[in-house]
TrEMBL record:
Gene source species: Terrimonas rubra
Sequence ranges assigned to domain VOC in this UniProt record: 4-132
EC number(s) stated in the UniProt entry for this protein: 5.1.99.1
GO molecular function: methylmalonyl-CoA epimerase activity
Assigned protein family: Belongs to the methylmalonyl-CoA epimerase family.
Record keywords: Isomerase, Metal-binding
Name of this protein: Methylmalonyl-CoA epimerase
Top EC class of this enzyme: isomerase
Lineage, broadest ranks: Bacteria, Pseudomonadati, Bacteroidota, Chitinophagia, Chitinophagales
Signal peptide: none
Gene: mce
SUPFAM superfamilies in the record: Glyoxalase/Bleomycin resistance protein/Dihydroxybiphenyl dioxygenase
Length: 137
């Protein structure tokens, strides 16, 4: 089952410029920045009530965020839903005909395991599933 919206991902050209703007907008400090090398992105996180805003800056000129900005400009890039069991949700959604962009959960930011669904099957919206990484046994 999909729980709450965990975060909304926003593609930006420059975190240096966008962080102070979102701090002012949300009236709360950025609580974390993190490079997610596997995704080629620099991220910055803000709390917004029960949800989060994730700013995404490309870490290289050919990354997915750079490509997105080149095509569509800065703006909302994806919506991430929290799930309790990412493997079960991936299985359910694949069986329902959605296109999973990764076959197994992969490392996300903020200690999460994530999976993306192709926007072609979701009315043009890139969807991310994310689950808190279980503590190492
Ligand atoms: C920081 C980690 C993690 C977290 O923990 O939260 C993140 O959020 S990482 C975020 C960045 N990573 C990803 O987005 C990974 C998943 N995305 C992809 O695999 C690709 O971006 C994609 C969705 C498969 C698109 O890649 P590609 O096919 O190479 O790009 P194109 O430019 O050719 O696009 C094809 C088609 O799809 C449209 N598109 C692309 N991105 C989006 C988007 N974010 N939302 C909606 N639509 C999107 C693009 O416009 C093209 O459409 P057409 O032009 O109509 O063909
Ligand atoms: Co995200």
């Amino acid at each position: 089952m999909m729980d709450k919206i965990e975060h909304i991902g926003i593609a930006v050209k420059s975190l240096e410029a966008a962080i102070p703007l979102y701090e002012q907008l949300l009236n709360t400090p950025c609580y974390k920045t993190e490079l997610v090398a596997a995704e080629n992105v620099n991220t910055a996180f803000f709390n917004a009530g029960p949800n989060k805003i994730e700013l995404l800056e490309s870490a290289s000129p050919d990354g997915v965020i750079a490509k997105f900005i080149e095509k569509k400009g800065e703006g909302i890039h994806h919506i991430a839903f929290a799930v309790a069991d990412i493997d079960a949700e991936m299985k359910r959604l694949a069986a329902a005909g959605f296109t999973l962009l990764n076959e197994t959960p992969k490392q996300g930011a903020d200690n999460k395991l994530v999976c993306f669904l192709h926007p072609k099957n979701t009315n043009g919206v890139l969807i991310e599933l994310c689950m808190e990484k279980p503590a190492a046994q």
